[in-house]
Design goal:
heterodimer; A: mainly alpha; 1 helix; 0% strand; rod-shaped; B: 494 residues; mainly alpha; 21 helices; globular
């Protein structure tokens, strides 16, 4: 048990919190690239 | 005051306020097909989030997840397994879908296939698959609404009349307001749902066991097998868990209503940001499991696990609170049902009926037919809900396995120039036939694997082989001839 939860519960719930953090990092990396592509295509976004 | 009357009065008030918001959303807007289906493509982060979260938190979550935790145990954790992965997939795919959607004025998932593969018949087939898969999803909402009113009225109102009244209201506000109405009602629905989930999720185990930790300790002591795979089932083991998580992660955004929701966004950036924050919204989901597991210890032996949340709330809290929970549950059924009906009706009218039976129909006529189809689909789902006894989660898994078979066509359509129309069609037919066969013959799971995932693997293999053997007719979106005329698309085709 971790923080009163069975480990499998705790593990899965923790990924609900960690995923946005990882994806925020991906967003910061991806967005400038997407912006560049959009500008090359004539500004769709 | 009779507790049933009090609870029902509160439920009716919440539903009335929600419906009023839905009706008001149409003010100052001309409700043409474009506005009705994709909200004029102008939704920002908040409205897109509300729309997508509104569709994702359905009766499946509210009653079905707690129901499966109650009746099956650990296998319900597949929901927490796929939830983060779904948004990772959407982060990379939806902005691309949005981009072609804006460029070619796409309104439905079938439009995507029609334009990408240059085939009206492939689009019609995709529309058919979408409509057929959506019916069990609408059925989930109809059944859930009936359960809520039946429990909240302490059995005074039977499930069938409750379902009929509730869905007459849903049909009316879809008819009037379109996708914008659904997004606005989601504000009330999501606020109530989150408050209800957080309060009930913490309060119920606290009242009976002194907290979540002591509740799990009691569960480990009394029903240890419920917390490990395969839980209370015989065949939902680890292989089923992994294959189901993969199937849903790939197939989740293939639900036509989620796919089409991406067309409402103002930009691809909105969809990326939405994918970043959406997993946080799923935090309320484990609380539903906790309520189901607490109910298992307090109220063992319920005939239908889907009743566990409402039954324990009715036993634990005063009638007015049951009314609040019931009201938020009713909106949780009505909001997703509205968007499902809207999508199903548009798919049928625009991509199935018009190209096959009436190519001369104008957009206005398509919009009118779609509104009639809202009533037809509502009626169909009602009949199924009245006569079917499947659990809410099993209905959802059935529909998911069907729509997931569209994944190869979407992902290869976006990233590959070698995939062919015939390849995608052959793959889809193989996948869907296999799913239907395995499910009808009771072979899901098959050798421990999710039947939908097995079908998806065959689908990919057949798509690849047939594409390799046939000539590429359309290389990609940029090489596609304009397929949708302005009257077909509701806009201008480049």
């Amino acid at each position: 048990m971790v923080l009163g939860l069975p480990f499998n519960f705790f593990w899965l719930i923790s990924w609900l919190l960690l995923t946005p953090l990882c994806m925020w990092g991906a967003y910061r990396l991806e967005e400038p690239r997407a912006l560049k592509t959009r500008r090359e295509k004539g500004g769709l976004d | 005051l009779n507790p049933g009357v009090l609870a029902l009065t509160i439920i009716s008030s919440i539903v009335a306020v929600g419906s009023l918001i839905g009706f008001c959303a149409r003010f100052h807007r001309t409700m043409d097909l474009e506005q009705w289906t994709v909200g004029g493509r102008g939704f920002g982060l908040v409205l897109v989030w509300l729309l997508m979260a509104g569709e994702i938190f359905t009766t499946f979550t509210f009653l079905g997840a707690s129901g499966w935790a109650y009746s099956k145990g650990a296998p319900v954790l597949y929901i927490l397994g796929y939830s983060p992965l779904v948004y990772v997939v959407s982060f990379f795919i939806l902005p691309l879908v949005w981009e072609v959607g804006r460029k070619y004025r796409l309104q439905t998932q079938a439009d995507f296939f029609q334009v990408r593969y240059g085939s009206t018949y492939l689009g019609a087939f995709v529309a058919f698959v979408g409509v057929v898969s959506l019916i069990p999803y609408v059925q989930i909402q109809v059944t859930g609404l009936g359960l809520i009113v039946e429990i909240a009225s302490f059995g005074a109102i039977h499930r069938t009349p409750a379902m009929i009244i509730g869905f007459a209201l849903v049909a009316a506000f879809v008819f009037m307001s379109g996708v914008r109405g659904v997004a606005w009602v989601s504000i009330l629905k999501d606020l109530l749902l989150l408050l209800a989930a957080v309060f009930v999720g913490f309060a119920v185990p606290h009242i009976y066991f002194g907290g979540i930790g002591p509740m799990f300790a009691a569960l480990v002591h009394n029903r240890p097998s419920h917390l490990v795979m395969p839980g209370a089932t015989k065949d939902l083991g680890h292989a089923w868990y992994v294959t189901t998580v993969l199937l849903i992660s790939f197939g989740f955004y293939m639900w036509p209503q989620y796919f089409a929701a991406s067309f409402t966004a103002r930009s691809g950036k909105v969809l990326r940001r939405n994918a970043v924050i959406m997993p946080l919204y799923v935090i309320a989901m484990p609380l539903m499991f906790i309520v189901g597991l607490t109910a298992l210890l307090i109220l063992p032996g319920l005939s239908n696990g889907d009743l566990s949340l409402l039954t324990i709330v009715r036993q634990t809290f005063p009638a007015w609170f049951l009314g609040v929970i019931g009201g938020s549950g009713a909106l949780t059924a009505m909001v997703p049902a509205a968007i499902q009906l809207l999508t199903g009706a548009t798919l049928y009218s625009k991509n199935l009926f018009r190209p096959i039976f009436a190519p001369g129909m104008t957009d206005q006529q398509v919009a009118s037919l779609a509104k009639i189809m809202v009533l037809v689909l509502t009626g169909g789902a009602l009949v199924l809900a009245i006569y079917s006894s499947r659990s809410l989660v099993s209905l959802w898994l059935m529909g998911s396995a069907g729509v997931a078979q569209l994944f190869p066509g979407v992902v290869l359509g976006l990233f590959s120039k070698r995939v062919t129309t015939l390849g995608v069609f052959a793959g889809m037919v193989t996948g869907i036939s296999l799913v239907v066969y395995l499910m009808i013959t009771g072979r899901d799971p098959y050798f421990g694997w999710n039947a939908g995932f097995i079908a998806l693997c065959f689908n990919f293999a057949v798509t690849g082989v047939v594409s390799a053997l046939t000539r590429v007719r359309v290389l990609g979106f940029d090489e596609t001839l304009p397929v949708l005329s302005s009257s077909q698309s509701g806009g201008v085709t480049p």
